[in-house]
Amino acid sequence: MVPRAIDAALGRGTFAIFGQDYDTPDGTCLRDYVHVTDLATAHVLALESLRAGGDSAAYNLGNGRPTSVREVVDAVERVTGRKVPVTAGPRRTGDPGVLLASSGRIRTSLGWSPRYEPLDVIVETAWRWREAHPAGYGKQ
Length: 140
Prior knowledge:
Layout: H1 2-9, E1 15-18, E2 30-31, H2 36-51, E3 67-68, H3 69-80, E4 86-89, H4 104-110, H5 119-132
Parallel strand pairs: 1-4
Antiparallel strand pairs: 2-3
Helix pairs in contact: 1-3, 1-5, 3-5
């Protein structure tokens, strides 16, 4: 979602918000955003645990903090200094109003915790990456 909002801020289309009538503070879905680097770190910890003889396990990964779709748009606008063109559509079938991860198990079992928790920090790192790779990864 963050990369799509950044692309919209760069003039690469619009950012679609599906549903603005959820029972949430601003009417948009609440999600638990976690930085891709934090996801990668969790995977490495899990692999290291398996290599050391630990049991296979499933973990939820997240910050444990709900963030609305509208808050993502606002953060992208704050960080980039650019307007994010938004289109509004109806709810998508099956989309719950709130999705929140409980990462307590991996925090306890493997000592994982996210390094990039604030939304503005997540957006800032994604923005810097997009600026450095305007055509995507592996392209100049």
